[in-house]
Structures are given as C-alpha cells and as structure tokens.
Specification:
Elements (H helix, E strand, L loop, with lengths): L35 E9 L2 E6 L2 E7 L13 E6 L9 E6 L5 E4 L9 E5 L3 E7 L7 H14 L2 E7 L7 H7 L6 E3 L2 H6 L1 H10 L3 E5 L6 H8 L2 H6 L18 E4 L6 E4 L43 H6 L5 H11 L9
Parallel strand pairs: 3-5, 8-9, 8-11, 9-10, 11-13
Antiparallel strand pairs: 1-2, 1-4, 2-3, 4-5, 6-7, 12-13
Length: about 325
C-alpha cells in the first residue's frame, strides 16, 4: 500500500523531530585553519601544559584526535582560550608529524609501547661512575632505543671524583659516541655544566638515567632557576623518595638556545618494540657489507656477510663486535 501519491514534494514527507535540538552528526571535521602552534612541555592525567609563543597554556586533547595522544616535545595546534590565565583550557586539534620518537617498554616481553619523548635531537644517557655502579647493559639498551628512534646519543658520566671514566670509555670508544665527564664540585661551580651545555646548544635533548646518577641535579645546574620557575607548577620535584622526577618535563635553556627534557629515573628499559634490522643504520661503515646477507639476517648468525666484509678490511672488527653486542642486548637483563 502506497503511503504517498505519485507526485510528492518535501512538504508531503513527514520527518521525526530531533528532540535533543542538536545538529545532526557529520563526518566532516573542522579544519581549524586559525589554530595556533605550541610545544608540549609536560602531560599530567590528560591535561597538557603547552608553550604558545611566550605563554604557558593548559590544554586537553580534542575528541577528533581519537586515540592519538600528544606527548612531551610534540608540536601541536591549539584552539580555544590561549590567554594562559588561571582556570582556562584550550583544545589540541592537530599533532605535527614527529621527526624522532623515544620509545620503551616495561620489559622485553611487554608488547605495550610507551612513547616517552617526541622530536628530540639527541638522547643524553646519564650514568654515575660510582655510587651507584655503572650499568653498561642499561646504557646499551638506551643506545639501541636512540638509534631506533632517530636520536643522536650523548654519554654523560657523573661522579668522576669517586671513580675514573677510563673503563667505561674503553667499552664505548668504538661506537664513536660523544661524551662528557663531570663531578659534583664542577657542577657546583658551573664548569661541568658549561661543558655539557656546549653539547646542548641549539638542540632538544632528552635526559635518561636510572635513579641516583645525578640526572636531575645536572638538569637543575643547566637550567636557570627562573626558567624552572616558568613551569614550576607542573614540575613534580619533591626532593624525597626514590625518584625526584615523576613525569617528563621540557625546560628551556638560557638564551632560548635549546631545550632539556628531564625524564623519570629508569628501573628498566624494555626493547620489545625495536626492530633489530633498524639498528644497523647507526653503523654506516658496516651497512654496505649487509648487501650479501641472507634474507632477514639478524647480523649475528653464521651466514652473515658482515664477517667476510670485516675480514677483507672494509671495517674495524671492534665495530662489528659493538653492533652485535647491541643487537643481543634484548636477550640479556639490565643487571648483567
């Protein structure tokens, strides 16, 4: 049975009223062409502290971003109240493509990937020479994560007044990693922080290290007090307990010539997310020798072409040993 006649128009068709009075849903999202850009300084329970021009703005992620999360170091586009006044909140509507990412997992069996820092130029791996003793396997894991994520590693050795750096430098000498050696007295008078600062100018540097190595002390020496006060309301520094830093925090160096990102002290550094085939890119002197490797070669097996490549004199055997030590680090625990 026909409900309408042959010739109907829109007035003849009954439509069910929208009781909520809101607009119908649409898949067309606003472009937010007037959005302002900023840098994420820290993230705390869904609230993000963002530097927009010279203002600190509190923001939250817009619903249209879905599961995509912004992290410290991200360049983001914001709309809404950007005044930075108390009790105001902006919305993050876009996240710029990242140039580098520092990731880790809780352990090597954990498939859940934790993204720590975005867009950092280098990774400063801080280790004490004594009290606590150096943990080379943890350093190796940080190096693998840096190479995998596109960050240049920097080795920072503290407490040289308690032990000499020679043994550790010998272990990493073949990797050609830049390094700085510091002690507490030099940090207090500024000499060591000046040497470290020379490695940081013009760069965004993420600092990692396990508890007690003096990482946060070094960061405080590098960043003037007025700069720390700029983001002091979000800096979870207690000075007590096992960890002094509880969340990643970006801090500007004096003269606006670089950034330091302080991260929580590490207890472990899992590498479940790392594809071993990408680690070879950090060894440009060895990479050409992989052309004759069998398919899906791990570069640590009997048929690996790198053995013949090195034996022919194309590269230093110590470099091949260093590569294989890093590749095998997933199979060892940090305390080895």
């Amino acid at each position: 049975m026909r409900r309408y006649g042959k010739h109907t128009d829109e007035d003849d068709i009954r439509s069910r009223p929208n009781r909520k009075g809101n607009r119908p849903r649409t898949h067309i999202r606003p472009k937010h062409e007037d959005a302002s850009w900023g840098m994420v300084l820290t993230v705390d329970r869904g609230r993000l502290t963002v530097l927009v021009d010279d203002r600190i703005v509190m923001a939250m992620k817009a619903r249209e971003l879905g599961r995509k999360a912004a992290i410290v170091g991200d360049r983001v586009a914001l709309v809404g109240d950007l005044s930075g006044q108390k009790d105001t909140l902006a919305r993050i509507v876009r996240i710029e493509e990242r140039t580098s990412v520092l990731r880790r997992t809780a352990d090597d069996d954990d498939p859940y990937e934790r993204v720590v820092v975005a867009n950092a130029d280098q990774l400063a791996i801080v280790t004490a020479l004594a009290d606590p003793e150096p943990r080379p396997r943890l350093i190796d894991r940080c190096l693998v994560a840096a190479f995998d994520g596109g960050l240049t590693p920097l080795l920072v050795m503290t407490k040289s007044d308690l032990a000499p750096p020679d043994k550790l430098l010998e272990l990493y000498g073949d990797l050609d990693i830049p390094y700085v050696v510091t002690n507490r007295e030099e940090l207090e008078n500024g000499d060591a922080s000046d040497r470290v600062r020379a490695q940081l100018d013009g760069k965004i540097t993420a600092f990692v290290g396990h508890s007690g190595v003096g990482k946060t002390t070094l960061v405080n020496a590098l960043v003037p007090e007025d700069r720390r006060r700029l983001t002091g309301h979000v800096n979870a520094v207690t000075g007590r307990g096992r960890h002094t830093t509880t969340s990643a925090l970006a801090l500007p160096l004096a003269g606006d010539d670089g950034w330091v990102i302080d991260t929580p002290g590490l207890r472990s550094f899992g590498l479940h997310h790392v594809d071993p085939s990408r680690v070879i890119h950090a060894f440009p002197d060895l990479e050409p020798g992989t052309e004759n490797c069998p398919r899906a070669c791990s570069h640590d097996e009997p048929d690996c072409a790198l053995d013949a490549w090195v034996a022919e004199g194309h590269a230093d055997p110590a470099r091949l040993y260093s590569l294989r030590r890093l590749l095998s680090t997933r199979e060892r625990t940090e305390g080895d």
